[in-house]
Amino acid sequence: MLKIGIVGCGLQAATIASYLSVYGDEYEVVAVMDMNVPGSKARMAQKGVKVAENCIYTPDVASFIASAPKMDGIIIGTYCASHTDIACELEKLHVPLYIEKPVAIDFAQVNKLYNTFKNSSTPIQVSLPMRLCPLTQEAKKIIESGKIGKVCQVVGFEDTDGEVYFTTWFRDADKTGGMFMQKAVHDIDYMLYLAKTVPAEVCAMRAKIHYVGDKAYEQTCDSCPDRYTCQHGPTFRFNERGMAESYEDALDHLTTIRTPDGEFLRKRLCAVSKDIAIEDMGSCIIKGTNGVQITHTQNFIASCGACRRGARFVGSLGSLDIDFNHGTLCYMSSVNMDIVNYKVNGGKLSHYGGDRQLVASFIRTMRTGERGITDLIKGDGIMSTLTCIAARESADTGKFMKIAFTEE
């Protein structure tokens, strides 16, 4: 039976832990580090995680290391700003690690992480499921077949609703590092992976123009005098968007975050609070070492039918469109008029089926020591985080940024 530790038992860490049995493997969580023990227990119960009767709960990494029993693997799911320091502390245990993205949120952190693990015997798998999902793997087969020729340019995009990012803890830039780190890190990773390139330089822009307002940071809809007229308020959600059964239902959704069983978890905050520091749109252009140019643009303004996520890979012989929201690929020849459409079933697990493959990889690492495809160093799992940090710095300074580590 696999003995698992969790450091920072957020919803995603609990989800990954719950997936450890999907291939028939037996496991149990034997140690948890979390400052909110009742909350961690509730999240594991919500996800059906198998917890040992004598599971140890600790409030910090030092006590976790000192008191935890022998483990086969550790899942790191703390706030993003803590990922680097925790991973570096746990490296000394030489237990396979599974670390949530982004693995760092600034240059100091990403360099510390790189220098700690570049020659380490500790495997550390990065949570980059889009690289491994069935749709991406099918795209990889098509590209490697030579059908589109040499990949010259990649144009990626994500248009998605920003409600969750501007009303929950994601709005705290000190915890998340901003939206390049939160979202583009996934897309840039799979685009670098399919283009078979290493990023060398990046330029970028970012801004906040939609989620703009003058409300206090802790303002909630239920006490706001503008709740009847605000574009982000309950009346608009119910009457204009038709996304609730009543005004009260809309107000409850915009004010309260609940479990699937309807139990209160915490308050949802105003989306247009004046001190929110994350951006609602951003774009970057990356130059690869093999000459390929990768463009990615994202916004958190589009909603409902306007949402999309994917990219076009332009090659010397043809192009390949990848559409994650619909699970489709479209090959278009540049030699003749051939067009071939593919429909790929991602399965039922999250992140387009990518989490299924991440779990399989982590189980294999725990049992054999074999490094996974998204390994921090061996699999270049760190590169999309480094690229996104450089993109944010480019956006804030108006300068092109070299993408490189500072070696120690």
In words, what does this structure look like?
The strands form three sheets. Strands 16-15-14-13-7-12-11-8-17 form a nine-stranded mixed beta sheet, covered by helices on one side. Strands 3-2-1-4-5-6 form a six-stranded parallel beta sheet, with helices on both faces. A two-stranded antiparallel sheet has the order 9-10. Helices cover 32% and strands 24% of the residues. It has three domains: 2-128 and 358-368, Rossmann fold, CATH 3.40.50; 131-211 and 276-351 and 382-402, Dihydrodipicolinate Reductase, domain 2 (2-Layer Sandwich), CATH 3.30.360; 221-267, no CATH class. The mean pLDDT is 96. The chain has 408 residues and is an alpha/beta fold. The protein starts with a strand and ends in a 6-residue tail after the last strand. The chain has helices at residues 11-18, 37-47, 61-67, 83-90, 107-117, 129-132, 134-144, 163-167, 173-176, 179-195, 234-240, 247-255, 354-368, 383-397; strands at 2-7, 27-33, 51-58, 73-76, 97-99, 124-126, 151-159, 199-207, 256-258, 264-267, 281-288, 293-299, 308-315, 318-323, 328-333, 339-343, 401-402. Strand 11 (281-288) and strand 12 form a beta hairpin.
CATH class bucket of the largest domain: Alpha Beta
Number of discrete domains: 3
Task: Going across the biggest sheet, name each strand in turn.
Answer: 16-15-14-13-7-12-11-8-17
Provide the gyration radius in Å.
22 Å
Mean pLDDT: 96
Q: What fraction strand?
A: 15-25%
Superfamily at the CATH H level of the largest domain?
Dihydrodipicolinate Reductase, domain 2
Which stretches of 5+ consecutive residues score pLDDT under 50?
A: none
Cα distance spanning the termini: 39 Å
**What is the percent of helical residues?**
25-40%
Q: Which term fits the overall shape?
A: globular
Let me know the number of strands: 17
Number of helices: 14
CATH level-3 fold name of the largest domain: Dihydrodipicolinate Reductase, domain 2
Largest sheet: 9 strands, mixed
CATH architectural label of the largest domain = 2-Layer Sandwich
* Overall SS class: alpha/beta
